[in-house]
Amino acid sequence: MKNILSFCIMLILAGLFGTQSLQSQDIIYQIDIRKDIDRTTQLYVSRGLAEAQSVGAKAVLIHLNTYGGLLDSADSIRTAILYSPIPVYVFIDNNAASAGALISLACKKIYMRKGASIGAATVVSQMGDAAPDKYQSYMRSMMRATAEAHGKDTIIQRSDTIFRWKRDPLIAEAMVDNRIVIPNLIDSGRTLTFTADEAMQWGYCDGIAETADEVISDFLGYNDYKLTSFEPTWLHNLLGFLMNPVFQSILILVIIGGIYFELQTPGIGFPLIAAIIAAILYFSPLYLEGLAENWEILLFVIGVILVLIEIFVLPGFGVAGVSGIIFMISGLILSLLNNFVFDFKDVSHIDSGRAVMVVLSGLILGMGSMLWLSSRIGRKGMFRRISLQTDLENAFSSPSLTQLTGKTGIAHTVLRPSGKVLIEGELYDGISESGFIERGAPVRVVRFENAQVYVELNIS
Fold first, then answer.
1. At residue 69, does pLDDT exceed 60?
2. Dihedral sign, CA of 274, 276, 279, 285?
3. Predicted pLDDT of residue 104
């Protein structure tokens, strides 16, 4: 009995100490960036940092291998890393070019694999050409500010105190601007790119390792740790795809085009359904990511309503129509910005420019597509099989109708300028050629064209 009791006590103690041993393991959270920097990558990092904080991770290690990507996404990732309450380190596995260099500079420590490189952060267009200097200037300032964010080391030499940057901002700027000259490092006319050994020499690498585990154990000093990796889901990939600037422009094209073509056809049809689906796909990921607020979506809806009121209720095109267009465009742009109501202090110039370009691109493509499709609908167009082919002018040019010219009658409805007119007991579609004509006013038929009578106010 005594032996059984001792055995139970030993099992309980072993369980307690085993549990404490497991709980004492430090959690290191790893986020992989092994693709171009885009909105999907931005989602990976933001969600990964949030999960690392929720599981109580001691450190975050970014496993990086990228040739660059979208600057606005890289800027968002940079900001998230700089303000992360958990220290973020990076292990460059081969490449940290362009936007990847900016992300690496934001991390507390940089570790590189032998043969890896970092730099070449010049902003380029989609065609591979260098972007205008205003974009280069902003990139230079971001690289410089990111290097400065890590502060200076205090070095005491005899009676002198020297303050030296942990990461020299001028070197960071030289990764963007090929005009910068740094003695013994780079001449004018070349954009700076470091190898692992060069980065170690100039303070842009804190250690060379072959694996992430080597970084964690040899440099970060964690021997008993649990490595947890961020696993993106299909939803992350879908949201990233929907938030791609090119796809957002296409959605705006469908929204504008769908509303336009729905107004050209009676009833509710496919164009309106397509516009509604496109609007849902446009605003939903932005709302889920906290970019689009309720009032920004409401602003867009109010704009659509004002445009419809202008078309169906009010004559001409005035305040309601112009206001509606402004509201719609404002709602589309503001939903892309990370603002809090009208507080834009955290919104960069690049984010603002990107939002405007995305919306304007969609609007221009939408207007161009509408004009092109309108010209293609008809007898010679690609949609000739679904369009009306009958010549209405000939169909309604019978002698009894053409003889209406000169007849008199009354305006059955208000003519603004179109409406209904009553001629010799028959109702016709009428168009006024003398401005607005009130209901019941006498009218005279001027001519008959395209199945409509053109009338003027009969004052005789």
1. yes
2. negative
3. 95
Q: Report residue 245 as tokens.
A: 């600037």
| Nearest CA among 339, 338, 358, 343 for reference residue 77 | 338
36 vs 185: CA distance, rounded Å: 29
Question: Is residue 46 classed as helix, strand or coil in its secondary structure?
Answer: helix
DSSP string, 182-228: BTTTB-TT---EEEHHHHHHTTS-SEE-SSHHHIIIIIS--SSEEEE
Cα 196 to the center of its chain, rounded Å: 34
Length reported for the chain: 460
* Side chain identity at residue 135, one-letter code: Y
β-pair partners for 455: 432, 445
- The C-alpha atoms of residue 236 and residue 51 are separated, in whole angstroms, by 14
Rg (CA), the chain: 34
Burial of 395 (0-12, 13-18, 19+ CB in 10 A): exposed
pLDDT digits (tens, 9 = 90+) for 293-329: 888 888 888 888 887 777 666 655 567 778 888 888 8
Decide if 330 contacts 299 (C-beta within 8 A). yes
Question: What is the SS3 assignment for 273-328?
Answer: HHHHHHHHHHHHHHHHCCCCCHHHHHHHHHHHHHHHHHHHCCCCCCHHHHHHHHHH
Which 3 state secondary structure label does DSSP give 165? strand
Half-sphere exposure of 353 (CA within 13 A, CB side): 9
Q: Write out the two tokens for 5.
A: 């009791």
CA dihedral 206, 209, 215, 220 (to 10 degrees): -40
Q: Which two tokens stand for residue 161?
A: 């105190």
Whole-number Cα distances in Å, 373 to 308, 366, 370, 377: 22, 10, 5, 6
For the chain, give the mean pLDDT. 80
In the structure encoding, which two tokens stand for residue 251, read together?
Answer: 């959605």
Please provide the DSSP assignment of 94-130 as one string: EEEETHHHHHHHHSSEEEE-TT-EEE----B-TTSPB
Query: DSSP states of 8-27 as a string?
Result: HHHHHHHHHHHHHHHHTSEE
Q: pLDDT of 438-456, one tens digit each?
A: 888 888 888 887 667 888 8
Tokens of 85: 């309450």
